[in-house]
Design goal:
heterodimer, A: 1217 residues, alpha/beta, 29% helix, globular, B: alpha+beta, five-stranded mixed β-sheet, two-stranded antiparallel sheet, 17 strands, 15% strand, disordered C terminus
């Protein structure tokens, strides 16, 4: 083509310098984003002329084994928008105080030389206190100096400790893994003070309770590279393209390597697009689907033919062969847990094992060799017994060490067939199905026992020729759990379920377990999430997929994997100076303190009437009000609760001492007596009494008042005491019996709310004080995740901009101020008493073999056994700052550990003191953590994942417990030591340790529970195996001891729309708030880049025909509302969503582009959590029993929010601003 | 043979997740400034959809690219504008509304709002006028089928579908969506260059990157109309047109362009293609059904001795020929034949190629229940995306070309499943490969490049020999000491760099 001019001559192209100059930069620094996404992506931040200009992904992850795709690049559209924030107009550059508070403070301060006295005077003036509370969220911020804000915060802290107790001071910060030192700065300060850290994983409803139920594990999952090893991937409740953006290429790459990808999702989502099969099952019905899949697998792979790989796996790694008492035949003398129907048969019941240690906590299988019940190793009783080395998965008798050959099924050797009552919660009816049993002689007489496997067959309706109400054919749609039965729930034809089940199981059989489920919030945020998860987990266990590379349940939502947990926990919770820490499960906390309990009646309104009936222990578990159960859970030691008591804990100790108590033991005894006689009460029993209110709240790294505030409008009313848009009715009065009812409900419980932030988000906007923090590109920190197996740093590309400081330095500054003000109020050390619940991974897992309530006179008060433990702790407020800076002596003395495992670190501690900076005071030198970098190096030097010697020691300690060789896994890496400086050069792969369950040696991808399967380390459960059967009175009462299906609670019973009515052409829709594309929770939502690439707002996604019914067109303004509040946004009308549901992607801010609501008096409309309220699921509150024992972010009820309904209407007229 | 070298690209759409990280990396580096706010040199579109700027493919509206007039190839714009005087008024130029009015928010109100009786919120305002704005369009407005009944249904390429097909695609049983990331195609027959009255646009001799000289541009904006992909933009602040520069400052220093580097779906590949410049006209002028084949013919085999000799004669450096030999783009386009050009019927001979996406199988609805097509994997027969639609995007309507490509990709998956799990039906892998016309060795290579390729496998960047380029006007030793000091030296009569 004659006209085309290729210009080759550089002389004619010298203008090209223009773009070359733009590309130039002065330095490149490695950092990442401490945002709650668990992406853990390493980024290179480019700096030019002292200004951060842009970021690009690091691509230098050390490679895995050669047959796996590499990790590079990691990082998404949100992460790469971070540079926008640094100099943006939403950046918090200076400290701010709301004017209303500042004026009152300055007035009080002018009258009082002592800042604490000034704060006290302000708190005593009720009118003034309410005046600044009412101004919260309504503008009027003023710039302040660091000196002034630090003084207010410190004065408030000391006032609260003195007047009310340190357990009225709370801090909230989520998911430490993403920037673990920024979290630790705040938690360390709070715990040295005696304050309370609020949990996050359960509150976010990201903790999958099914994981502790089945595995005794908070969460452990495969790193994303292991998806590539999977040959059949089922994705449900997780939108990989949306939320696992940097990982999703492994799914595509697996597909091109011959893997099938199946997605269950109600809408045609980003990941649906990626699938071979998109199964458009109705929302929240994944459980029904899997129940039917399990029915097919059990029938075709266990009953009609036998599958040796599956059977062998079940015998070794699950509770399937364990014996359950089906019928105790009413014989007298059983009394205890020993031979109660539906409970696992205890070793204690048998003559042979009566005298073994912890015989109530050891269980039995049927041994084919001896033709009788035998007690295999590995159960929780072996874990906590004096004689170590028998806690392993060896199928050997605990008494004589002989090999056991366990039966999966009694069929063929059974003595009898007994009818088992099987509940069908979908229709609230029961079926009687025959189960083969053996009779066993026990101390209480002859009892009938069945294997868990046989109960599972009955539960799923696979008859094997046994009598009873079993379905005959797959087409039997009336009877659970046939493929035809599930159709009415999922909307998916039986034929598709059948093909799926066959493909899934046959792939697992051929590959020995390389089938996996990727699961997330779309399932986990439903009220019955644990049942939906278990339905899928059963399929995985039946097919031998757990503990295999390429297999298992991969739960990815908010999952916490702070890898160097052992030293980090010591540092973060100040265990180096004292213990125990005060750690609170947040769902309970907010349910109680933000008064949400006042707005509902008994939980039986939204649980099946089947469970409230006979045969369930008179309804003691299954009827009543959640608030009553909550109070009971606290006094029985199942759950923590702060404040602990209706008195200041410092006063409680003082009173005991004045009453003559000498020493900690007598103080504890005195307190126990006072509780028994009722002169001292648990605060939870009267939560609205002023002495029991939380008072000072510090929020950092999170958006506690909006993004995660389920019942946001309740927060505004009861915590903050400002305006709100809720219309729901307080109806709990008269339906509770354990707690006091106070009128009116308190408004404005909190004295002071402090938010530490780099952006003016909703929480900042509603706080009294906003402190400017460094962005992720302006500070040093550490990051780890479970999506990959590396550890890498955040580091400062530029110093903190304007007047910001890193979180670590902010808490240091607060600590210093507290110590400066303290001597006038706390001249010497003081003694505090801490109440802690029965704890996971401690011998308290054996505390309550049967549920007995001391208050009902069923047992004595025994701290740490029948009630919370009580521990006297010393506080040193004058030296709080010095303690903060110094890694204390208790760490050296006690060693470090996690999950009930610990090992010594004296020499490593001393190395730190010799080689690293020290803090010297009172004549001693401690390893210094004054700078965040020092803290990072301290963690890296002690953690087994980053120090090979520590890994070796941890394995040695584990070998003693387990009694099998393990340390060979760390033998080759004993010389490995990582430092912060090294990580800044290149990310490093984490070492294999017994603190986790994967094996990553030789570049192998991390997959959960490989250590259990390959090295026979037990799961931390009742039997030490994976639990298909949940043996606990509460689970039995609720009918959740076996995997089951429960329908979504009716919206009317949940109280979302008791007062709300349809307005005009409105439609009633199920309201879902999945994770969005243009933000990570609320972070990046307000970012101009992301708002430009979306629609400038977070729209409400709805189906085109639903929209037409309501007269709504695409991009119209809409108002969505229920009793809890109102949202005004625009509609995205799309055929990719099915009818009857809508999506408002979690989580917009009410700070950006939110008009007023005509329905609520033309007040500013709210955010997504304006339409939600907290409801706690009772079974998840049980405690003191093996895996059902409390752990922070580990066990407890979760903040479910998906069973919510809203009305949606077109906004009348133009939006008002 | 007039052999030249072109840095070319492949985007694997089956791997694309529509995340837009590419878009933001580009924006951060290149268009984050006044006058360029609305420009997205790299954008990503949801398909079906109307894209950015809206309906860009509709050449009845914009008159971009070339058309055959008889045997001649002419600019669509040419002749339509009439006389030279009409250059001042170009009715086919997209307006700001066809892109979108860039906006921001009054964030400062959150800090500065006075005490009041309600909560402040940051209102959206125009970045052009600073006034409150009602946001009604954006650069990714129909993302993930947002407003599908309006936007997706308006996709010009859907026009090729039958009435029945069109009515079905907005039911859940058939609905489909995939992502189409777009940058400048750095065409061999660029209509932007041909449209520019000022001669400001050129193709770089050494690597084929198409650039708008910021010195020579005179704001005629004919390139904006002329480009059928709407990948040239007018900077209203500087009064110059700007476009994707394929990150030449990065490419010249051995780094992949920012959008390639940041592609977290790992869908992007870059490498050199050698082509015969003498056959461009023939390729651009081919009948519609032959356009893909004709373009493949223009691309030369860098391992063939005659090609190498001719390349040397044309002055292509050895390093460039080496790079062409290792080029992943060559493998996808010529060897595997699974990457296709976007809208070849625009006849600009675009040098960015797309591997088409696979999509889930269709479902059938009966009595309110849905059943999926029974194929194990998504298959040609039951996949949701209509071949006709893909053909209208990627092969000027030639469905055979698209079918061949999809058959190959699917055969690779069946082959790999047979190797790693086993076969559902004995012999199925062999049959699939033979139907696709590839050997098991080729299947392995396709799989490896698709699934396992590392950064250095995806990007084969030729050495730029900058010292020789600089040497043509300045001693590289002097440049070593002076580079970056431009401002003062340019002040003395512009004799410096």
């Amino acid at each position: 083509m004659s006209w085309i001019r290729d210009i080759a001559d550089p002389r004619n192209r010298r203008w090209e310098e223009f773009y070359r100059n733009r590309w130039q930069h002065d330095k490149v620094v490695r950092s990442t984003h401490g945002v709650n996404c668990t992406g853990g992506c390493s980024w290179m931040v480019h700096v030019k002329d002292g200004i951060i200009t842009w970021e690009l992904q690091a691509t230098d992850y050390p490679p895995l084994a050669g047959d796996l795709p590499p990790y590079e690049p990691r990082g998404c559209q949100r992460g790469i928008s971070t540079s926008w924030y640094v100099y943006s107009p939403i950046r918090v550059k200076y400290p701010y105080v709301r004017g209303a508070l500042m004026d009152l403070w300055r007035k009080a301060r002018a009258k009082h030389d002592d800042p604490v006295a000034a704060w006290t005077s302000l708190m005593e003036d009720g009118e003034s206190r309410r005046a600044y509370q009412r101004a919260r969220g309504k503008g009027g911020f003023r710039r302040a100096s660091w000196e002034e804000v630090l003084e207010i915060i410190a004065a408030s802290a000391i006032h609260t400790v003195k007047r009310h107790g340190a357990d009225r001071i709370i801090g909230f910060s989520p998911i430490p893994a993403m920037s673990m030192l920024s979290y630790a700065g705040g938690s360390r300060f709070l715990q040295l003070l005696g304050g309370v850290n609020l949990s996050f994983y359960d509150w976010y409803s990201d903790l999958p309770p099914a994981s502790p139920e089945v595995w005794g594990e908070q969460t452990d999952v495969a790193e994303s590279a292991d998806w590539y090893n999977s040959k059949y991937i089922v994705v449900m409740g997780a939108n990989l393209g949306m939320t696992r953006t940097p990982d999703v290429h492994f799914a595509a790459e697996a597909r091109h390597n011959g893997t099938k990808l199946v997605v269950l999702s109600p809408d045609f989502s980003m990941v649906s697009k990626y699938a071979d099969w998109w199964i458009p099952a109705n929302a929240g019905q994944d459980g029904a689907f899997w129940m039917a899949v399990n029915h097919v697998i059990l029938r075709e792979f266990f009953a009609e033919k036998r599958t040796p790989y599956f059977e062998d796996y079940l015998k070794r790694y699950s509770d399937a062969p364990f014996l359950v008492v089906v019928d105790s035949r009413g014989e007298a003398g059983s009394g205890g847990p020993v031979a109660d129907s539906k409970r696992l048969l205890r070793a204690r019941c048998l003559n042979r094992y009566r005298d073994v240690e912890n015989a109530d906590w050891k269980f039995l299988v049927w041994d084919d060799t001896t033709g009788g019940p035998r007690m295999p190793l590995g159960s929780v009783g072996f874990r906590w017994q004096e004689e170590k080395g028998k806690w392993n998965l060896g199928m050997k008798d605990g008494l004589d060490g002989k090999e056991i050959s366990p039966r999966l099924s009694m069929l063929g050797v059974h003595d009898d067939v007994l009818p088992l009552e099987v509940a069908d919660f979908s229709e609230n009816r029961t079926f009687a199905r025959g189960v083969p049993v053996k009779y066993v002689e026990t101390d209480g007489g002859k009892v009938a026992v069945a294997t868990v496997f046989d109960l599972i067959m009955a539960q799923f309706g696979v008859s094997r020729g046994l009598p009873g109400e079993y379905p005959e054919r797959y087409e039997d749609e009336a009877i659970p759990y046939t493929p035809a039965w599930q159709e009415k729930f999922t909307g998916i034809e039986a034929k598709t379920v059948l093909q799926f089940a066959r493909e899934f199981a046959s792939t697992a059989e051929k590959t020995e377990g390389r089938c996996s489920i990727i699961i997330g919030a779309g399932v986990n945020h439903w009220y019955h999430n644990n049942l939906m998860y278990r339905a899928g987990i059963v399929g995985l266990i039946l097919c031998g997929c757990v503990g295999k590379n390429g297999g298992g349940l991969n739960h990815y939502v908010g999952q916490e994997k702070l890898v160097p947990m052992a030293p980090w926990g010591t540092l973060a919770f100040a265990l180096d100076w004292g213990k125990p820490p005060r750690l609170q499960n947040t769902p309970s906390f907010h349910y109680v303190h933000s008064c949400q309990w006042r707005y509902e009646r008994g939980f039986d309104e939204y649980n099946s009437p089947l469970t409230a009936g006979a045969g369930n222990g008179d309804g003691r578990f299954t009827r009543g009000h959640t608030m009553d159960l909550q109070a009971k859970a606290v006094r029985m030691g199942w759950l923590p609760f702060y404040p602990q008591f209706n008195e200041n804990p410092l006063d409680i100790v003082r009173e005991a001492e004045e009453a003559g108590a000498k020493g900690d033991g007598e103080i504890v005894r005195r307190v126990t007596e006072r509780l028994k006689e009722g002169s001292l009460r648990f605060a939870v029993e009267d939560p609205d009494a002023p002495e029991n209110w939380p008072r000072l709240w510090i929020i950092w790294r999170g958006n506690a008042l909006m993004s995660s505030a389920k019942g946001h409008e309740y927060f505004l009313r009861h915590y903050l005491g400002t305006h709100h848009n809720m219309v729901s009715e307080e109806i709990a009065e008269g339906s509770t019996s354990e707690v006091s009812w106070r009128e009116p409900a308190p408004e404005g419980k909190l004295d002071l709310v402090v938010d530490i932030n780099f952006r003016m988000d909703t929480s900042a906007l509603y706080s009294d004080i906003v402190l400017p923090t460094a962005t992720w590109y302006e500070k040093n920190d550490l990051n780890s995740t479970d999506l990959h197996s590396y550890i890498h740093p955040l580091s400062a590309a530029v110093p903190p901009c304007w007047e910001s400081k890193s979180d670590w330095d902010i808490f240091k500054a607060i600590a210093e101020k507290v110590s400066n003000l303290a001597p006038a109020h706390f001249p010497g050390k003081v003694r505090d008493i801490v109440a802690v619940p029965l704890l996971h991974d401690t011998p308290a897992e054996l505390a309550q073999p049967v549920v007995k309530d001391w208050k009902a006179g069923e047992c004595d008060l025994v701290p740490g056994k029948t009630m919370p433990n009580l521990v006297v702790v010393e506080r040193d407020y004058a030296n709080l700052y010095r303690r903060f800076l110094s890694f204390g002596p208790l760490a050296r003395k006690d060693g470090i550990g996690v999950h009930g495992l610990s090992w010594p670190i004296e020499d490593l501690y001393d190395e730190l003191a010799q080689r690293r900076p020290t803090a010297e005071w009172n004549g001693r030198a401690y390893p210094s953590v004054e700078e965040a970098v020092d803290a990072a190096n301290l963690i890296l030097h002690l953690a087994p994942e980053t120090n090979g010697e520590s890994a070796y020691r941890a394995f040695k300690a584990e070998e003693k417990k387990v009694g099998l060789p393990l340390a060979d896994l760390a033998e080759g890496v004993r010389e490995v030591r990582y430092t912060f400086e090294e990580l800044a050069r290149q990310p490093r792969r984490l070492l294999t340790t017994p603190c986790w369950t994967g094996i990553t040696n030789k570049g192998r991808a991390y997959s959960a529970y490989c250590l259990n399967v390959e090295r026979l380390v037990p799961w931390r459960t009742l039997t030490g195996r994976q639990h298909l059967y949940l043996d606990h009175e509460g689970y039995i009462a609720f009918g959740e001891h076996l995997p089951t299906y429960k329908p979504i609670p009716d919206p009317r019973s949940m109280g979302d729309i008791s007062r709300s009515r349809p307005e005009g052409k409105s439609v009633l829709l199920n309201y879902l708030t999945p994770h969005g594309k243009w933000h990570i929770h609320s972070t990046f939502f307000d970012n101009e880049r992301m708002l430009t690439l979306s629609r400038g707002i977070e729209p409400l996604w709805m189906n085109d025909r639903d929209a037409a019914d309501a007269g709504i067109a695409d991009n119209d303004w809409v108002e969505l509302y229920n009793d809890h509040g109102v949202v005004v946004t625009r509609a995205a009308v799309s055929a990719r969503l099915p009818r009857k549901m809508c999506m408002l992607y979690h989580s917009p801010e009410r700070t950006i582009s939110v008009p007023r609501s005509p329905l609520r008096g033309n007040r500013r409309a709210g955010g997504h959590n304006s339409l939600t309220r907290t409801r706690l699921k009772p079974v998840l509150m049980m405690g003191g029993y093996a895996q059902f024992t409390y752990g922070f972010n580990y066990w407890g009820p979760t903040g479910v929010n998906r069973d919510t309904f809203v009305y949606v209407r077109k906004l009348p007229g133009a939006p008002a601003w | 043979m007039d052999v030249r070298a072109q840095v070319s690209m492949v985007f694997h759409l089956d791997k694309c997740i529509g995340c837009h990280t590419c878009s933001v990396s580009c924006k951060n580096v290149w268009t984050d400034r006044r006058g360029a706010e609305y420009m997205w040199w790299n954008n990503v579109e949801s398909r079906p959809g109307t894209g950015y700027p809206t309906l860009w493919e509709d050449q009845e509206k914009y008159r971009g690219g070339w058309e055959k007039r008889g045997e001649k190839l002419e600019l669509r714009l040419q002749g339509r504008l009439g006389s030279f005087a009409n250059l001042f008024f170009n009715p086919y130029l997209p307006t700001l509304d066809d892109y979108y009015e860039p906006w921001t928010y009054r964030y400062a109100d959150l800090f500065a709002a006075p005490p009041g009786d309600d909560q402040p919120t940051a209102r959206p305002i125009s970045q052009i006028t600073g006034k409150p704005i009602d946001i009604e369009a954006g650069p990714n407005w129909d993302d993930d089928l947002g407003g599908s009944a309006i936007y997706a249904a308006g996709d010009p390429s859907l026009g090729k579908l039958s009435e029945e097909e069109r009515s079905q695609i907005f039911a859940l049983e058939r609905i489909f969506c995939f992502y189409l990331p777009r940058i400048c195609n750095h065409c061999l027959n660029p209509s932007c260059i041909a449209s520019c009255p000022a001669g400001a646009i050129y193709k770089r001799g050494e690597d084929g990157i198409v650039l708008v000289s910021q010195e020579k541009c005179r704001a005629w904006r004919m390139c904006i109309s002329g480009c059928p992909y709407k990948k040239v933009y007018y900077n209203w602040e500087s009064g110059k047109s700007e476009k994707c520069i394929l990150c030449y400052p990065r490419v010249e220093t051995g780094q992949a362009p920012a959008c390639f580097h940041s592609c977290v779906g790992r869908i992007r590949y870059q490498g050199v293609l050698l082509y015969d410049a003498g056959r461009i006209e023939e390729a651009a002028n081919a009948p519609a059904e032959r356009l893909v084949a004709a373009q493949r013919e223009v691309i030369l085999d860098p391992s063939e001795a005659t090609v190498v000799a001719a390349a040397r004669r044309s002055g292509v450096p050895d390093a460039m020929i080496d790079a062409a030999r290792k080029s992943p783009v060559y493998r996808f386009v010529k060897e595997f034949r699974i990457a296709l050009p976007l809208h070849p019927e625009f006849r600009t001979v675009p040098m960015l190629f797309y591997v088409p996406p696979l999509l889930p199988v269709v479902a059938f609805a009966e009595n309110g229940r849905k059943r999926l097509a029974g194929d194990f994997f998504s298959s040609l027969e039951s996949a949701r995306v209509p071949v006709r639609y893909l053909a209208s995007l990627l092969s000027a309507g030639n469905e055979t070309v698209v079918t061949e490509v999809l058959t190959r990709i699917m055969a690779v998956r069946i082959h790999r499943k047979a190797k790693t799990v086993g076969e559902e039906v004995p012999g199925e892998a062999e049959r699939a490969l033979s139907r696709a016309g590839i050997s098991s060795r080729e299947a392995e290579e396709i799989y490896r490049l698709t699934s396992l390729s590392a950064y250095e496998d995806r990007f084969e960047i030729p050495p730029a020999a900058r010292e020789r380029a600089i040497e043509s006007f300045e001693d590289p030793y002097a440049a070593k000491g002076e580079t970056g000091t431009g401002f003062l030296r340019r002040g003395k009569g512009g004799k410096g760099r």
